[in-house]
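Table S5 (text form). Sequence records supplied for joint modeling of the two-component complex.
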Amino acid sequence: MSVKLIGESGLRYVAWQMLTGDRPKYVGLILAIAFSTFLMSHQMSIFVGLLDRTRSQIRDIQDARIWVMDPKTQYLDEVRALSFQDLYYVRGVEGVLWAAPLLKGVARAKAPDGKFRNSILLGVDDASLTGLPQKFLAGDWRGIRAPKSVAIDRVGFEYFFPGQPYQTGLELEMGAQVVRVAAVVDASPPFVNLPVVYARYSEALDMVGREPRQMSFVLCKPRPGVGEEELARRITQATGLKAVTAEQFGWETIWYYIRNTGIPINFGITICIALLVGALVSGQTFSLFILENMRYFGALKAIGVTSVRIVGMIVMQGVVVLAIGYSVGIALTALFFELTKDNLDLRGFRLLPEVMLLTGGLIAAVVLAATIVSVRRVVVVDPAVVFRG
Amino acid sequence: MEKEPAVVCQGIHKAFGSGETRLQVLRGVDLVARYGEMTFLLGPSGSGKTTLLSIVAGLLKHDSGRVEVLGRDLGRLHNGEASLFRLHNVGFVFQQFNLIPALTAAENAAVPLLAAGWKRKSAILQARQMLSELGIGHRADVLPNKLSGGEQQRVAFARALIHSPKLVICDEPTSALDGPTGRHVMELLRKAALSPGRAVLVVTHDFRILEFADAIAEIRDGLIEKVERGKGVH
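The corresponding structure-token record, covering 623 residues in total, follows.
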């Protein structure tokens, strides 16, 4: 295999053999790069996945292209309630195809066995059920229309009814009411891994306790031919409320968490450590490899191999360990996410092409730096050193 | 009749360092090595023989004087030209063999051909033939760490001769060998390396092998003190 990959070029073959012939260093180099690749790509993927979760409910409500909210609302999870009147104001704006209310709150849910947990409660429009996820694991949207009926996500169902297959008809206490599980939905996991419960808007009001203002958002969709950003601008102008596209609101939420939590710093530290470890270990090992082969490189120079060609040999060695180490590291990360994809706590995390590229770029920079340091030593070596023993 | 010179050194000066640390290693060396002859450069440690060897090999630039090797003025060659010149015309036998541990005997012997652009299969085939001529064809696929000192030396010879160089430079070829093995190696070197169209320059301080020399130049403190004819034992 090695000869076919390297081809008939003599010096490439010599470079390959010098590298793979020193088994401990060769394996050490690959493991160092693989470890660094795995750690960086894994942590980056978790970081990206966590931030993506902050906007999961925005993403799940695919019909709603515009989100309307209090002007001071910064992100999805902390809202200042609107007056229900605002729903009619929005409906009256030129270009709005439809507008629906959405309540987002927290309610305590309690299972028959007494187990309880705070749950994210989403109150969706009574008529259109806009805001309900589209993928059902048990039951369907029709069941939600019945009185005191809710839909619950997988995390919630498995928490309150462990060991039971997904099914409808089971009961929960939400607030002061007993409700029936009419559907189990496959919703995207939220940032805080709480159960998510969906109820009709009018029923959700009772679950969180009635107050003068409880509507969190108005969701709407533009008429055909009207741009989303244009409609958002019109709504803001007409109502004084903040109106943004779903895409914009998703990014606002992500940036809020980046700016106001320790997530970026903590993950950034881990990624930097991975980069540093990779750089130090692979750099050190590669330098050692070159140092130990210095007299052979000196001999090759004496025989008549130019510095340029020797640099080519070393670069080739660097590229080989980079390719193999990176592949092993990325394969480990991909394997991790494949093996854990059915784990509820880790659902949604995956290895993105962008993360692979960024990791590859960083690792390549590390190997390049190690190669440059090593190459410099060989280029300046005095070939007469081979005569000094 | 005197044979044609392959190496001509005239008035070679070479110093290292500067200022107070400047060390004058060669002080006006004159040396001639002829085709078809084995010329020994004999001298104690620190006499300048390794420096002179490096200059003749084109690995070091001399400060002043003239060095003509195989008709080429080495002082006029830049590094790339000097590398190419060595690749095609000079063979080296290093003191510590410097066989690459990850390559087999045949692969090590083939290195000059591989460096010159030969295809691997052809180069290895040529190397196997060379090793057979030197009596170790049966060890062609063995790694250097499994070869005896004498066998490694033969592989080193094969590497030095495989591309039919006109000049072979040997640095202390017997320093790592015992007496009988050293003699045997020198017999092999004379038989395999010496030809009318090739000169062999041997740097040594091993007095046991002087009988193999056609010419002996003694160097001391950077100057050639004496040049005499050797027995040239075949």
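Note: Confidence is low (pLDDT under 50) at residues 1-8 of chain A.
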